[in-house]
Structure formats: structure tokens, C-alpha cells
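Now for one record.
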Amino acid sequence: MRLVRSILFVAFLLLVAAHAAAGPVGVHPGFKIGMTVANLRGDVSSVAELESRSDITFGGTLRLDLGPYFSLQPELQYVPTGGTGTLLVDNGGTPATVEGALKLDYLELPLLAKFRLPGSPSMMPNLYLGPTAALNLASKLTGDLTAAGGSASGEADLKNQMESLLLGGAIGGGFDLKMGKGLLTFDARYSKSFSDMFKAASSGVLSGADPRSNSVTVTAGYSF
């Protein structure tokens, strides 16, 4: 997996360098809103898979056109993740299970290499990929926490157990429609975290957890 990520990263840098001389930079700010369906994979649940978390995602974009077929697109986006189900918790050093929901909120900064494909002048399909960095905003466990020393409808703040920065990658595609002086955009992407979400030395409620996030996001937006 590390070799694959290294190859993709080097290819990404080479493509950026190759297209950077294609023409002047066009700067186009924009915004987007949509839905994210996210789940966790790893040592966090006593069942094979947690139920996914679905929630609204939104943010801003800045498309830097480096020629007719290539753009760099940094974004700043609120991204929800987490899961619901039977979670493994630490009750004073004794493993226990709770029925609850793990809600994790991030402010994500993707840096996407966007490739436009041949199409009609009014509709331009595209593919993109790139690395992501996400800042943890909030992390909470809600549900029946009696097995962890809480209440039947309790809430535990887990932010101090989380790594503050989460690294990952995204790949996706969509199409742009000319509308007025800007572009109406529709896209779908798959994102995955590469780094651990919980601190290795954590001694809190989910001290043994080692999950990573997977999410599918569908958005609509407009760039000026």
C-alpha cells in the first residue's frame, strides 16, 4: 500500500509540473454542498462493520486553471464521518461494549489535480485525485454508556483521544456545466484516511481503537 501511494504521489507531482507551463493561471473561487456517507474500518467495533453515518457536507473551492485540460483545485470543506453500532470501550481497564454512535467532524483540505476530458463546449466531464489533510473539529460518542460508567443516554467527548490532523487521499469525477459566467459543477468522490485517527497512547473510553475512515461524497456547486 505504501508503494502504491508513493507511485501515485510521484505521478501527481509529475503531472502538475508537466501542465504548469500550459498557459496562464485562471483563478475561479466557488462553493459546494452535498451529502457524505462515511464509515470506519479497523479496531473500533465488536461487530464486523458499523452502520455508516450520513450527513451534509459543504465548503469552498478555488480552481486554478493551468491550461484548457488541467486544473489544481484546493478546497476547504466540512466533512462528517463516524459510525453507529456495537462499539468496544474501556471501562477502567476492562473491555466492554456499548450501543452508540461515534460522530467525528473534520475540516478537510484536499489538493486535487483535475483533468478535464473532451466534451461539448457546454458540458465538460472531469476526473481528479489528490492528497487530503483534515483537522479534527469535534469527536463524540453518544448512546447507552452505562457499560463505560456513563448514563443510558450519555455523551462522551473524545477529542482529546483523537489525532488533531488526519492524512488521506481522494479520487473522483464529475462534470461542469456552463451557466452564466461560471460553471455549475456536479461530482462524486471516494476518500480514505491513511493515518490513524486515535492517538496511540490514548487511555480514554476508546483506548484500544485503531480505525480509519472511508467515505463517499456527492456534491453540487458553482465556481465563478
About this structure: The beta strands are 26-43, 51-65, 70-91, 94-116, 123-144, 154-157, 165-179, 182-193, 210-223. Residues 2-223 form a domain with the Porin fold (CATH 2.40.160.20). Residues 17-23 have pLDDT under 50 and may be disordered. The CA atoms of residues 3 and 9 lie 10 Å apart.
